[in-house]
């Protein structure tokens, strides 16, 4: 009798559990919500696309729109649909307008899902601190486990703001070494020694020779001024400097000193020399006269350009950019800093209705080689052809323009091309591992107590930056420079510097 009773109770319990499970499933269906995976693998959660409801996302990044974009994005969506039942609007924003446009969208709480961010574009530290991005600290290991496991904990620490991670780091070159590229044909023609270049001013004699000796139609933009970018920061690794809390707000420190002092980078001889040299460039006609209003620039006309990041295979990259063989001049030695480790990231907007699915897209970008190379290279037979197991060549007249692999996920999944060595990504990993590690590595600044002063200083930097970068102030540059520094003082730059120093001292003490 006891045995019979136990059996009946057991059957009753099973029936209750089954009913509860059915009701939970029905509730999930009626809510229209997908059940999150209960383990660390997003692929396990999507053994079939039927396990996930169809979702459509919006993904913003910078770049120029090209005729072949639509076909490539359709091919990518076919892969995403198959793998995680997801489609994505890939939305390009012109390079120079990206931060401004995205900041307006973020501040307006416009709904979107994914966006490129860094200390330089759509300031990661600022937007993480004010809640523009989803906290991914717990979500990354759950919905993008392979992406998370690929990087050392030390690298993830560079992305922490108040202890939390607010964007996925794109795997690429982390060590930074800056430099210049110089058109090889022109340098050889005018017998210019690239090794003589140690600073920006050293380019003037060469560029003047080209200006005088080449047709006027080819010399209207001999130097790449990158008017809206933080070009001065390209040279930080050379100076062994490191930005703190993004590049729009003054306040940096030495990467190698045991007890670094925070200082205003705009109040240094290096910055003053930088803007005075660019003013000379402008007066000599080495930078486009209409640089501030010109809608597009022709990179094939540049006789010289600054390079933010040297890396194995860089010669092939700059050759493609400028459509000509280039000399590459390195400055300083490679160094690993927090801003450089997080120089390219993908964030999930706090307005996203599907942050988990957005993380699954990030996982696909980092682990699905077919998807990644479609996004970078385009469609095989249309935009490129394979000339080896992992080597490709872009096709002449291809409708799709090769994208920056470092912008989207794990660049080490990319095909190689041209003069890049077959083991370029192994070399890149080795360089990352061997670079000098900054004293400040892992430090992140919390701007909350100087939020107003930081915003005011950033507005002033942005007010003057494009004109400084293009030398447009010409003979008035020194006067404008003093005016610029005075405005920063009024905006509260000293208070910002003091707070940065206070937080840095506390970090070093621990």
Main beta sheet? 5 strands, mixed
- Could you give the count of β-strands? 15
Structural class: alpha+beta
* Average pLDDT rating: 88
Spans of at least 5 consecutive residues whose pLDDT stays below 50 are 1-48
Distance between the termini: 68 Å
Notes on the protein architecture:
The protein is α+β, with helices and mostly antiparallel strands and 510 residues long. The protein folds into two domains: 42-171 and 343-375, D-Maltodextrin-Binding Protein, domain 2 (3-Layer(aba) Sandwich), CATH 3.40.190; 176-340 and 468-509, 3-Layer(aba) Sandwich (D-Maltodextrin-Binding Protein, domain 2), CATH 3.40.190. The chain has 20 helices and 15 strands. Helix 3 links the parallel strand 1 (55-62) and strand 2.
Short description:
The chain has 510 residues and is of the alpha+beta class. The protein has two domains: 42-171 and 343-375, 3-Layer(aba) Sandwich (D-Maltodextrin-Binding Protein, domain 2), CATH 3.40.190; 176-340 and 468-509, D-Maltodextrin-Binding Protein, domain 2 (3-Layer(aba) Sandwich), CATH 3.40.190.
Give the helices and strands, then pairings.
Layout: H1 2-31, H2 42-45, E1 55-62, H3 69-84, E2 86-93, H4 98-107, E3 114-117, H5 124-129, H6 139-143, H7 145-150, H8 153-157, E4 160-161, E5 164-165, E6 168-169, E7 176-183, H9 184-189, H10 204-213, H11 236-239, E8 241-243, E9 252-254, H12 269-283, E10 304-307, H13 314-322, E11 326-336, H14 338-341, E12 345-348, H15 355-367, H16 369-377, E13 384-386, E14 392-394, H17 424-434, E15 436-437, H18 451-470, H19 477-491, H20 493-509
Helix pairs in contact: 3-16, 18-19
